[in-house]
Design brief:
There is one protein chain. It contains 5 helices and 7 strands. 23% of the residues are buried. It is an alpha+beta fold. 24% of the residues lie in helices and 34% in strands. It has a 7-stranded mixed beta sheet with strand order 1-2-3-4-5-7-6, with helices on both faces. Strand 4, helix 4 and strand 5 form a beta-alpha-beta unit.
């Protein structure tokens, strides 16, 4: 398992996020989603993150119901991904997000990163962490289940003209 830390970036360090979100190989899992993110590219899954939006994102990071950090490999000192959660305080449940650079996937970064995110969520008294994951992302689901997440629902969506099964998962903290 990789040794990682969650590193909260300053606005001057948002270039890594910009690079991550603009890489078609990294964002391929996001391709064809029916979402309405500003700057979302349906054909690649990429999301524009121009410098003009960095200040707004920096402000978002100040919200106590939102946590965002880079995943930093402690051996190489390089950023390998990002991880976050956004709390819905009315139900005490936070939706998590994790993106690992395409060329770093399958190398043991996901589990230690989510363990650190769980620790952060517990410090904030969050009751549940949740995510929705395509059943085709078997390795990701396997890691979530090994960490203690449970499938609470399953639903079908059409993505790029193909029927996909989505697992709604959550973990009680």
């Amino acid at each position: 398992m990789k040794k990682v830390e969650l590193y909260v970036p300053s606005i001057e360090e948002f270039g890594f996020r910009q690079e991550l979100l603009s890489d078609p190989n990294t964002m391929e899992y996001n391709k064809g989603e029916k979402v309405s993110y500003m700057g979302y590219h349906y054909d690649t899954g990429c999301i524009d993150f121009p410098k003009e939006r960095w200040k707004d994102f920096e402000e978002k990071m100040k919200n106590p119901n939102f946590f965002y950090a880079y995943i930093k490999d402690l051996d190489t000192q390089e950023f390998v991904g990002e991880i976050s959660f956004k709390l819905d305080s009315s139900i005490g449940k936070a939706n998590l997000g994790i993106i690992i650079k395409a060329d770093k996937r399958g190398q043991g970064y996901m589990k230690p990163s989510i363990k650190l995110l769980i620790k952060e969520a517990r410090m904030r008294k969050i009751k549940f962490l949740a995510d929705s994951v395509s059943a085709s992302r078997e390795a990701a689901l396997h890691n979530f289940y090994k960490l203690g997440f449970k499938k609470i629902n399953e639903y079908k969506i059409t993505k790029n003209g193909i029927l996909d099964t989505i697992a709604a998962i959550e973990m009680k903290l």
